[in-house]
Structure formats: C-alpha cells, structure tokens
Design brief:
Blueprint: E1 2-4, E2 7-9, E3 17-21, E4 24-25, E5 31-32, E6 35-42, E7 52-56, E8 83-84, E9 89-90, E10 95-99, E11 114-115, E12 120-121, H1 131-144, E13 152-156, H2 158-169, E14 176-180, H3 188-202, H4 218-232, H5 235-241, H6 261-274, H7 279-291, H8 302-306, E15 312-318, H9 326-338, E16 343-348, H10 356-359, H11 361-380
Parallel strand pairs: 7-10, 7-13, 8-9, 13-14, 14-15, 15-16
Antiparallel strand pairs: 1-2, 3-6, 4-5, 6-10, 11-12
Helix pairs in contact: 1-2, 3-4, 3-7, 4-6
C-alpha cells in the first residue's frame, strides 16, 4: 500500500510471463516455429470467465501496461493511470491481459530473437508480419489462458488496428471493442512518414544491413523516433509547451546545434528511445502498419468487412490528432452503422494530438468505465 492525498492506495505489483507455442502460421505463408509471447495479467478471471479484457499497445509499447514490477520501480506501466484497483478499468472487477505484440523487442518473438534453425538472431531473416499475425498470436495466448470470449478488446493507435482486426477475424470471440485514436488503414501521408523513418535507419552506417551487434544504428533510430514523435503531438500543443523558446535566452547557435526548446525535447525523446527499442523491430512493425487495411476482410470494401463483426463498439478519436484523424474514425463508424451494428462514437476535444489517448485519462476513462459496465451487465443477463 502507499498513500495519495492522505488515502491508502493499493499498489499493483505484477510480473511478466511468457508462453511459447509450437508454431505460428503467418499470412505470408511462412511459419514461425516456435513463437513466444510475453504478457502480463491483472486481476482475477472469474468463475464464469466472462470478465476478461485484452489491452493492446501502440507501435513501440510493451506488455507492461499497469502497476510496477517491484515496490522499488520508479516507473509504472504505460497506462497505469487507466488500469488498476478502483481505476477506470478496474482490476477488482476485470481480468486484464496485455501482451507484447509479435515483432516487438520486449519478450515476444521478433527480428532480434534467436532463429532456432541458425542459432543466430533472425534480423532480416525474420518473415514479414502483419497486424493479422499479431492477432493470431494473441488468439493462441487466449486459448492458453483458457478464455473463450473477451468482454472487450481495447487498443490505441496500432493497438486499435489490432482491435478492429479482432472484431472481424474472430467475431464470436469479442463481446465489445474499443478502438481508440486509430484507423482502418493508413493514409498515404502516414505511409510516407513511416518510409522516411525507415530510410533514416537504413542509411545509418552502423545498421550493417540489419546485422549490427556491437555498434547500434542509434542515429538512424533516433531520427526515426523524432520524426514519429512530431506526428504524435499537435501544432497547438507544441506551441503551448515550447513556443519559440530558446535553450539559452538571447543566444544564437552558430554551429547548427540545439537552439530551441523543442529541438532539445526531440533529442531527448530520440535518445530515450534508442535505449529501449530495436531498429530492426521498428522496420518490421512500421511496415506491418503500412500493409494493414481492414477492408481486406471484405474484398476491399470496409462496410463488407465490418458486416462480419458482432461486437458492440466504442470508437474514440481526438480533435487535434492529425496522424489518425477523426474523419478516419468516422469512416469506421459509418461502415458499422451501414451494417446496423451497435456503435457509440466520441471525439474528445484535446490539444495533445495523437498522444491524447495516453493523456486524456478522465475524459476517456469515464467513457470506457461506463461502456465496460454496460457490456458486462448485458453479458451477465444473457443479452450477449
């Protein structure tokens, strides 16, 4: 226990777990054998096994979405403000599962894993993966945990793409879905940003055609992250936080070094990223985003694809998100309405840009809490 504002608050202590499966057939026709997934669970699966929620992280996230690994940990999971005892996704009520997505570098099989055929890292020998492949590995984890249906699948950004894919790939397994700040397919602009980020990595001399070991392609990966991070923010938000503030007042750089506060901030974000993420994983994951189109489940027609879904939906966008826009969320909502599906949509007014799904805790959390409560009540009553 610890105290906030004089009140006792339960500290959620969790440990990462792993499950390894004999094989994972991929959409490319190749097979990963074996395939390991790292995951964390929070709360308790009830006797009816009808309170399980799957949380799916964004592009560079991990399975550690809430709590701490020890009382000494300085930093909790990436959505700790949302998930935990008494919080919006209440682990006193729900059994929450969060896994590291296929292709990542945080315990789940990816390019930096050891290829059992060679005894060396996969690197560029790793097969190209898709969002659908990520869902298939999550499905194997679901069976491993002996869960028959998810009360809800929840995800933001890349996690939202996974969420949408779940609803049409395994509609009978998803009672409800909450895709947040996401899209059914990337725009050409988003594909362009991913391309430039990958080019920065590929152009780093230390990348060594993906076979780097001692010297890492830190410069290229850092630039890729800085570029991506700009897309996660908004013009208004950056102006409010940084404006045109100089690092040192009245000092003008003559060597093109860092002058403005926003430059220093991006340098910091880039350096932090290379300390925790892998360049090859970044290449594979961003390519998986590029190739994703939910309409592929409907012969190129989004409405036809979503006709397969049986879940109730809560779709959420943010007013200043220019990476995955409100218009893209509305396209999903319209396709669901065309099929007579139960869907609730909300655009949250925010200056945080795409990152708002991590920061607008109260507005987003209240919607999620009430939606989950309603879904669980319907399930208990036998209405779903």
């Amino acid at each position: 226990m610890f105290r906030i504002n004089g009140e006792n608050v339960e500290m959620l202590i969790v440990q990462a777990q792993q499950a390894t499966f004999q094989e994972l057939p991929l959409e490319s026709g190749e097979v990963l054998a074996p395939a390991t997934i790292e995951y964390e669970t929070y709360g308790t699966l009830n006797a009816h096994k009808n309170n399980a929620i799957l949380i799916i992280h964004a592009l560079t996230g991990t399975a550690h979405c809430a709590g701490k690994h020890s009382e000494e940990d300085k930093k909790p999971g990436w959505w700790d403000t949302m998930i935990g005892p008494g919080k919006h996704i209440d682990t006193d009520k729900y059994f929450v599962v969060c896994s590291n997505c296929l292709g990542g570098c945080s315990g789940t099989t990816g390019p930096r894993s050891i290829n059992p055929k060679t005894g060396r890292r996969y690197n560029l020998q790793f097969p190209q993966i898709t969002i659908g492949d990520q869902v298939e590995l999550q499905k194997q984890l679901m069976e491993h945990l002996e869960i028959d249906r998810w009360l809800s699948v929840v995800g933001g950004s890349m996690g939202g793409m996974n969420t949408l894919d779940w609803t049409v790939r395994y509609p009978e397994k998803v009672v409800s879905a909450i895709p947040i700040a996401t899209t059914w397919q990337l725009s050409s602009q988003s594909i362009a940003f991913n391309w430039v980020g990958r080019k920065a990595i590929l152009s780093d001399p230390a990348w060594e055609n993906g076979e780097y070991e001692k010297e890492l392609p830190e410069s290229g990966l850092s630039i890729a992250r800085m570029l991506a991070h700009i897309t996660y923010l908004s013009d208004v938000g950056m102006d409010m936080k940084f404006g045109r503030n100089l690092q040192e007042e009245n000092k003008v750089s003559k060597d093109f070094s860092t002058s403005f506060s926003i430059e220093s901030y991006l340098n910091y974000q880039g350096q932090r990223f290379v300390e925790r993420f892998d360049a090859n994983c970044y290449l594979y994951l961003t390519r998986a985003l590029d190739y994703f189109s939910l309409a592929d489940h409907g012969d190129g027609d989004l409405s036809k694809a979503l006709a397969k879904a049986t879940a109730d939906f809560l779709v959420v966008s943010f007013s200043s998100d220019w990476l995955f826009t409100t218009e893209q969320s509305k396209q999903v909502v319209e396709a669901l309405k065309n099929n007579g599906k139960n869907v609730t949509f909300s655009e949250i007014d925010s200056n945080y840009g795409h990152d708002a799904f991590l920061l607008e805790v109260e507005a987003l959390g209240t919607m999620i809490r009430e939606f989950l409560k309603y879904q669980h009540t319907k399930l208990v009553r036998g209405e779903k």
